[in-house]
């Protein structure tokens, strides 16, 4: 079946659900949105956890705010859009059995409660703990004379030149407030009387410059780290900006807009031009949420709400900084290493004895890396070697997200001077579109052949292919296949798997995937790779069904699967059938999970755990017992409809015995044994911490100690608390 036919089939499946199916949907599947909110709650719990270093807790709180921003501008905005477009009754029920308006009504209270919990964490836990450590976020009236003089000098030199005060009147319309831009709203009274007497109060707006840090460091007493929020510094000077007006009140506010991209293929000259146009539209998206300082007067709130056409429930009054995500600056600006996680550097890869280079190493065996425990530099070295090595004839690579000044990006540009270089750049990587457009332009200018994959499908697979004429005169292919982005920055705090190989069957299949991405030519087979949207979905179901058959035949049958999210309904249903047949299933799902575990007669053999810790769990690993002939896959795809049907993804087998053993007995075993950062999903949808019936064990800490050479023993699964027990 072609990719387009598969998408059509998916669309056909999305028909209104009959009444008879409603009860099944409500019973068997958790709501995606509710599951996401529970994930962000687990992140918030890390901010509340006093056993974590203090500044790491601040960082976790900032992450919850950033996560919530994306949820509002994508998920909530999408629900509002469907309701406004009249789809409330016409659309099928969601995973939790609700219509869009019902889902929105349920989310409203959950969101308000979560925001209240965020600010309780900030005010009642983090601020007092920071004060105890002599880290202070001061109000203007608390700033001493020396620090005030420093702040005013900073204001004069760095801030004031960037400010544009605006008053709202018939000749000055309300300015276009960009998505998530922090602003000040002022209620102003003109000191001059008009012809008819006292003039009515008007609104003033000042946008806080995004180019400046949200927290301004201040000189303080010896041993203190003092800061003032940038908007409070600006607020202290508003009278200078609005001379001739009496300042009745002033409040910080922020508007979140609909950030979904809506593209029409028929109207597009190119993907690049379409994305550029839609990015411009995103900045003008409809308002979805208004955040405003809790002390703001009702008149300011009402004027802003009416201007942005928001309902009262869309207004969020904050008991602290309006944008908590900018607390990340506090983490980076405070030089207190004792209040952060201890520094860690991944283990460097070393060539085998008497081997000349990485290419010679890969001709003898595959190399697998588990980042960040294994240094990402090996991947960079692989790409850089391709650029420098005179034997390398051509290079091909996918780029989903990269980083500024990436060594990989520079290597591709360098390679284009002497080799054929092809790069498939995904322009629609959410919130990285702007930077990816710039990278694409720079690569094209350097002579790189730049492609944007297949229209309508994000290119999410992580592949690099080098073609080299080796010293023996034979032309060979060398490939990197991964679970994470080619981003050296995120590689330091995302857990991911990399496989480097020269196996002909693997590298030939990678070549076929690139042909598909650049020419949409479908091969008869991509084996041993599983490729979305072509073969992956069917193969995943087949692999699960095979375990079901093995269990029924009395053969070894088990599944251990690690991923970011599990939402695909046919996959969940296949897992339910496997559980009913007796297959033992352990799922390590960091984020959203629609599967309901532990239900007698349905999923009693399924256990689901989520691990939230120092590193963002990003690797996807899938292990199938296969009647005693175990198969293990890694790759870029979660078990979600978007990964299986709307993206170009690749899962690759790990067949080398020592590498498969490491995945099973070191990496997966560690995550299953975690009783410190693991939470277990209950049948009612709540997550509870694993019980510490044995010594505390944290998988990420353990894997770091292995990398440092401090431990060698592999954790037995017996170390884990009995599944389903709670602390």
From TrEMBL:
One Pfam family recorded for the sequence: PP_kinase_C_1
Biological process annotations from GO: polyphosphate biosynthetic process
Keyword DNA repair among record annotations: no
Keyword ATP-binding found: yes
Catalytic activity: [phosphate](n) + ATP = [phosphate](n+1) + ADP
Residues at the catalytic site: 460 (phosphohistidine intermediate)
Domain Polyphosphate kinase C-terminal: 358-521, 529-693
SUPFAM superfamilies membership: Phospholipase D/nuclease, PHP14-like, PPK N-terminal domain-like
Residues that coordinate or bind Mg(2+): 401, 430
GO cellular component: polyphosphate kinase complex
Polyphosphate kinase N-terminal domain ranges (all copies): 29-137
GO molecular function: ATP binding; metal ion binding; polyphosphate kinase activity
Highest taxon listed in the record's lineage: Bacteria
Cofactor entry: Mg(2+)
Gene3D superfamilies from the UniProt entry: Endonuclease Chain A, Polyphosphate kinase middle domain, Polyphosphate kinase N-terminal domain
Listed EC numbers: 2.7.4.1
Keywords: ATP-binding, Kinase, Magnesium, Metal-binding, Nucleotide-binding, Phosphoprotein, Transferase
Known role: Catalyzes the reversible transfer of the terminal phosphate of ATP to form a long-chain polyphosphate (polyP).
Similarity comment text for this entry: Belongs to the polyphosphate kinase 1 (PPK1) family.
Protein name (Swiss-Prot/TrEMBL): Polyphosphate kinase
Species per Swiss-Prot/TrEMBL record: Edaphobacter dinghuensis
Gene that this polypeptide is encoded by: ppk
């Amino acid at each position: 079946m072609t990719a387009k036919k598969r998408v059509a089939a998916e669309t056909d499946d999305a028909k209104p659900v009959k009444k008879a199916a409603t009860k099944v949907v409500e019973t068997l599947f958790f709501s995606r949105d509710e599951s996401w909110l529970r994930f962000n709650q687990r992140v918030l719990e890390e901010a509340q956890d006093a056993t974590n270093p203090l500044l790491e807790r601040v960082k976790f709180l900032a992450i919850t705010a950033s996560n919530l921003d994306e949820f509002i501008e994508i998920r909530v905005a999408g629900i509002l859009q469907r309701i406004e477009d009249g789809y409330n009754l016409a659309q099928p029920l969601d995973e939790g059995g609700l219509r869009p308006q019902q889902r929105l009504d349920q989310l409203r209270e959950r969101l308000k409660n979560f925001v209240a919990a965020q600010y309780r964490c900030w005010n009642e836990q983090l601020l007092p703990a920071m004060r105890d450590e002599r880290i202070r976020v001061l109000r203007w009236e608390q700033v001493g004379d020396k620090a005030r003089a420093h702040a005013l000098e900073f204001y004069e030199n760095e801030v004031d030149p960037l400010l544009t005060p605006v008053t709202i009147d018939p000749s000055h319309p309300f300015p276009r407030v960009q998505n998530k831009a922090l602003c000040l709203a002022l209620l102003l009274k003109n000191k001059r009387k008009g012809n008819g007497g006292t003039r009515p109060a008007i609104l003033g707006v000042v946008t806080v410059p995004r180019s400046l840090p949200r927290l301004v460091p201040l000189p303080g007493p010896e041993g203190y780290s003092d800061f003032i929020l940038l908007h409070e510094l600006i607020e202290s000077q508003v009278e200078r900006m609005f001379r001739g007006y009496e300042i009745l009140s002033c409040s910080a506010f922020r508007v979140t807009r609909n950030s979904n991209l809506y593209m029409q293929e028929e109207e597009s000259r190119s993907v690049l031009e379409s994305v550029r146009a839609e990015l411009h539209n995103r900045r003008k998206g409809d308002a979805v949420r208004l955040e405003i300082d809790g002390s703001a007067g009702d008149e300011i709130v009402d004027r802003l709400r009416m201007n942005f056409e928001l309902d009262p429930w869309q207004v969020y009054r904050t008991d602290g900084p309006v944008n908590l995500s900018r607390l990340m600056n506090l983490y980076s600006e405070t030089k207190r290493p004792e209040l952060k996680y201890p520094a860690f550097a991944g283990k460097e890869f070393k060539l085998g004895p008497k081997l000349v280079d990485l290419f010679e190493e890969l001709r003898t065996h595959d190399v697998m890396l588990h980042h960040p425990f294994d240094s990402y530099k090996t991947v960079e070295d692989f790409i850089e070697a391709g650029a420098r090595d005179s034997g390398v004839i051509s290079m091909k690579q996918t780029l989903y997200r990269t980083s500024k000044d990436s060594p990989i990006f520079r290597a591709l540009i360098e390679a284009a001077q002497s080799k054929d270089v092809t790069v498939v750049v995904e322009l629609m990587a959410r919130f990285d579109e702007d930077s990816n457009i710039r990278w694409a332009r720079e690569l094209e200018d350097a002579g790189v052949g730049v492609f944007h994959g297949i229209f309508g499908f994000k290119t999410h697979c992580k592949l690099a292919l080098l073609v080299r004429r080796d010293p023996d005169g034979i032309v060979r292919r060398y490939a990197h296949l991964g679970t994470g982005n080619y981003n050296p920055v995120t590689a330091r705090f995302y857990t991911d798997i990399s496989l480097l190989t020269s196996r002909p069957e693997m590298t030939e299949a990678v070549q076929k995937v690139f042909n598909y991405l650049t020419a949409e030519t479908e091969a008869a087979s991509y084996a041993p790779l599983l490729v979305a949207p072509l073969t992956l979905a069917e193969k995943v179901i087949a692999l699960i069904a095979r375990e079901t058959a093995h269990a029924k035949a009395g053969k070894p049958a088990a599944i251990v699967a690690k991923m970011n999210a599990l939402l695909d309904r046919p996959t969940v249903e296949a897992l339910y059938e496997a559980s009913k047949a007796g297959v033992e299933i352990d799922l390590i799902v960091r984020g959203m999970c629609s599967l309901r575990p532990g239900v007698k007669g349905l999923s009693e053999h399924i256990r689901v755990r989520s691990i939230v810790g120092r590193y963002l769990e990003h690797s996807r690993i899938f292990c199938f017992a296969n009647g005693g002939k175990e198969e293990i896959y890694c790759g870029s795809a979660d078990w979600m409809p978007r990964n299986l049907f709307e993206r170009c993804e690749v899962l690759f087998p790990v067949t080398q015995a020592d590498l498969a053993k490491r995945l099973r007995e070191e990496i997966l075993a560690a995550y299953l044994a975690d009783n410190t950062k693991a939470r277990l999903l209950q049948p009612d949808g709540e997550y509870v911490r694993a019980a510490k019936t044995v010594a505390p064990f944290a998988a990420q800490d353990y894997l770091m100690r292995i990398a440092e050479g401090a431990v060698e023993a592999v954790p037995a699964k017996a170390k884990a608390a009995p599944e389903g027990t709670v602390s």
